[in-house]
Design goal:
Distance between the termini: 62 Å
Largest sheet: 5 strands, antiparallel
Strand content: 5-15%
Radius of gyration: 38 Å
Structural class: alpha+beta
Shape: elongated
Low-confidence stretches: 67-82, 84-116, 630-741
Mean pLDDT: 77
Helix content: 40-55%
Length: 839
Amino acid sequence: MPAPIRLRELIRTIRTARTQAEEREMIQKECAAIRSSFREEDNTYRCRNVAKLLYMHMLGYPAHFGQLPASPSPNTVLEKSVEAVAELGTKDMKEKVEEKATPKSERRKWWRRRTGPKRKMMFEIVKLLLGEHQAEHACSYLSLFFCSDLNHSTQFVQGLALCTLGCMGSSEMCRDLAGEVEKLLKTSNSYLRKKAALCAVHVIRKVPELMEMFLPATKNLLNEKNHGVLHTSVVLLTEMCERSPDMLAHFRKLVPQLVRILKNLIMSGYSPEHDVSGISDPFLQVRILRLLRILGRNDDDSSEAMNDILAQVATNTETSKNVGNAILYETVLTIMDIKSESGLRVLAINILGRFLLNNDKNIRYVALTSLLKTVQTDHNAVQRHRSTIVDCLKDLDVSIKRRAMELSFALVNGNNIRGMMKELLYFLDSCEPEFKADCASGIFLAAEKYAPSKRWHIDTIMRVLTTAGSYVRDDAVPNLIQLITNSVEMHAYTVQRLYKAILGDYSQQPLVQVAAWCIGEYGDLLVSGQCEEEEPIQVTEDEVLDILESVLISNMSTSVTRGYALTAIMKLSTRFTCTVNRIKKVVSIYGSSIDVELQQRAVEYNALFKKYDHMRSALLERMPVMEKVTTNGPTEIVQTNGETEPAPLETKPPPSGPQPTSQANDLLDLLGGNDITPVIPTAPTSKPSSAGGELLDLLGDINLTGAPAAAPAPASVPQISQPPFLLDGLSSQPLFNDIAAGIPSITAYSKNGLKIEFTFERSNTNPSVTVITIQASNSTELDMTDFVFQAAVPKTFQLQLLSPSSSIVPAFNTGTITQVIKVLNPQKQQLRMRIKLHI
């Protein structure tokens, strides 16, 4: 078999390829030759073949298949590969025996010249071709190989071994070689100490229980003057503090020493060796600041010791270069995370405010994100930069625009509601479609919470409906209808404004629906011209009906909108006096509509005219004021034939006979699947007679004394494999001492940044109904979209799940989703529930 070409020739040949197809053909041809060489067990040119495989791997081509034909056993293949790379470092030594007369300096030069590059290639091949997972098969062989090189007399060989072990060392290799790494960590050679420190970080990540082995070696690491050793030492200390609370407490005594090192870096003069854009070793400064942040968290003494140095860094760091901005950003994070002084926190927020004026978009985004995290704790300090934050709403970058919008809503309060809403409405008018839904929802919530007057509130919501149109969330229409209904003195003003808003434009469907409802409810006020807030308009009954009929026949009107319009026309039959015959004719026409919903409404209204005309005035009278049942949750409103009415739970009398046990174990099909295992029944206990006993019975037999309730269960009942009931066990622990205090809230779910809390309340209309309000919050850095909460209860209960306030859980706990659950418990049993979340 002819000798294979050299690596240099292969590189030259590949570089001559003019197309990618030609290059692939060359690679395939050479791989075939390498495969044939391995198959024939030709060891003469194995080193050359492995070097070419490494080059192919660096080019992105698969190189492992060239070794597979060597042997059917994977372990044998790995061993032969390792033997091949080992030959790279030992072959030349066998060819030339060192003579005693050769000077030591000459022998060292010869070693570096002959074995240095090949030894480096050997470790690169181990890292790239074998990798961490495959190296586990050859663990014992490689451990001996690494142990030999870690004890080598040449520091460069030791350094290569440390780098390779720190990159791909498996758990077993780390256990075997941790002692050698710890020994090199104590050496006086700074070149080896910095590499040993990084290797120790990898060992701790792989085998955390070996952390204490490196504790004695860390005592003198911070005394080193070499910046490379200091940098790697800080990385090692950070890793140990993050993984062990005991190590964190142990290393807190090093805070004064770290402060001293950081101060020397700031005050030191120009050093060309460590200078980056006029700042001395910014990489080491950033690492020290991160370690100080970990050490000072939740510790008063450590925080007080680093307050002065943090103030010096914040005031003395140059901000004209990105290097200085990076250090300032780490300083701000450290100040906000420790128990720092109030003046220092204001300084940190002012630094973020200066970041907002930077031309670099990344710096502005980082500043907005950091301010969003701190706005809850330092609201007044962030308020000082409100104008700069609002200006970011005009930025062309969508990421900056979204962060600025979220931060603007977080800054809204009762004092600045008018100014902030003006800016946000302008943003809503000019922003991209993907922002309109979130912006409209935020304006609704802020206006509901901080509205200075009802007229301002109504004008703002109408402006949002006019601007955002179909992008508003589903509950905007019923919420605005409820707001208008409760504002009795604003009825004439509102119906006149809405009438003007929809003249000739039916494209904004939510606005048209609200306008149709209001015209049907308060059409008599519109015709009579009783508006006092602004100049009344002159409108006839026929003109009002013309508008509603136009909505009915418009191509832009949806089925829901047509239902609103038809119901409004029907209501006007009791408000108007001269157009009743016209209304009858319109209603009768839609009795044959192809829209089933519209046809059903028209047929019912026709029957009302013909058979129950004497009841029409009473049935279509003006809606009463709607009151919210819950203080924080969404309003209990459902749509019925285009009108909004309270939705009481349907109550059924308890069965006269005993219910079978299986009925209590059948859950709703809401969760899917039919393999639900039986639920262990809970034996009833006697209820104490007290003033609050009726409220407590809503959740079953809650034991006020804390004694566990009896819950016998047959031994044959299998264990429940489904997720446990959230409210199981409420009867076996004392929830509260004072009955008048009410049922305490519970955390139903807290995982991966999502937290769901349940608060309980008794219904005012039915004492057997429990009103549960869930609040979902998100502490992660990204919004959780498409949030769906589902719940199921046994058949002995009745469940009503109202619509959530939104489908997006905002990040950084900047907002919550609320949803109301009503549970009817006629038999006074223990409340049991399963939930299912979809994000």
